[in-house]
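ingest -> validate -> predict -> emit
validate: passed (alphabet ok, no gaps, 308 aa)
predict: started
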Amino acid sequence: MKNIDIICIGEVLIDFIGHEINTSINRTKDYHRFLGGSPTNVAVNASRLGLKSLLVASCGQDGLGEYIVRKLKDNHVNTSQIAKLESAPTSVIFVSKSTETPDFIAYREADCQISEDQLPDEIIADAAIFHTTCFALSKNPARQTILNRAKKAAELGLQLSIDINFSERIWPNREEAKQVLAEYLSLNPLVKLSEDDCYRLFAEVKTEDFIFDYFHKLGASRICLTKGKNGVVLSDSEQGLFFQEALPIEEIKDTTGAGDAFWTGFLYAQLHKKELEESISIAQRLASIKLQNVGRLPDNINILSKLL
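emit:
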């Protein structure tokens, strides 16, 4: 029996999300502070679904870092492997509130300072899933730490996972990004990516066939492509293609973190040995809850009853 359901390794930061909806950063006057970072969101969401999540990340030894650790503990995320650095301040991102893909400006400092001693072998051996992101792999030393620890996780039989949340603003060298992704995908992780991610990674629109063929050839057997209001397509190298339409949503309040909510739901379902179609449905339901709320998932709902 594993004591950790999911290790999330990568960026922890502060999202300053604009108060006015569908307004550019240029014209946004007020921002509200939220705990952010894609692996961080997954760790928090997983904990709120009743999973045991561990976040491996780095923040500054400063007021924002204190806020991060406090919020993680409030959400029952294991913070034992978070480094608080005196040498670098906490990373922050300013994000426009949007019903489409939000605009952002990143100020990165401590988030990429992840060292291997933050994730010893014995902790990896006690976990079921090892999850990271393209954002986290974009800078060293975090990149090499994550690649090395992912190889150990694969050796120890963990299910690997990655959100290919590529952005050229975070990782300007696309060819380098593709090489690093190829190294990670050779370990056969579960892969989540969006149409926007693909457009940014390849700098042009690619067909679903191209996308699935490209990532399957790198070694990933299960790939989930999210298409916003056009639904979700999952390609499994053994079971074929699965498509599900997007759920109807009365009012989208904020898209920030919706992909992380989707993927948390999918990983939750996979941990519980659900079939692929049901896994997608659970993922979509959790994402729809997030789309209707700004910041984290709400407190006043029974998430599990909504999903099962």
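The chain has a mean pLDDT of 91.
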